[in-house]
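Input record (one chain):
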Amino acid sequence: MKKLTLPVLLASAFLFAACTPQAGPITGTEEQKAEKLAQIIESGGSADCTVTNLSDKTTTQMVISGKKMKIIGSDFGQGKKGTMINDTVYSYFWTEGEKTGFKSKLETEKETTPTPAGQEEQFDTESTVQSYEDETKFKLDCARRTVSDSEFVPPQEVKFVDPSELNTMTPEELQKLYPVQE
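The corresponding structure, as predicted from the sequence alone:
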């Protein structure tokens, strides 16, 4: 069986049906783990996962609870990690040690009408897997756990700016936001 890459694992996580999660580690093959994670997400459950890139040993942590998600990424250069929080209202993005980050308002979910039988969009997982290079392999380690809402609160010391606001800022405001480092 082919190993799945991170993009396919994440995409697969949103495609599978719901189940009732129980506490503890998620076990099985990488594909089975991805399917179980997808079931937890679909059912509104909670999990804490570490995705390891086996080629360079970098890790990414994902904390999921209901529709909320926090991702702490591997080294973005300069030895710093980047974080993204989706609290269901905004997505927040920042780099470790920085005083400025970005936020983006999320669109509210719209009710969708069911697609008539026979007209469903087909997703060819096998073809997608084959389209990725096989050099980079990932390992997914997840555990179901209770996740506090405080996990999805962005840090107070970081000033978050909506990119759409940048056009309306004066040069002085921009300089305060992004001071020139000498």
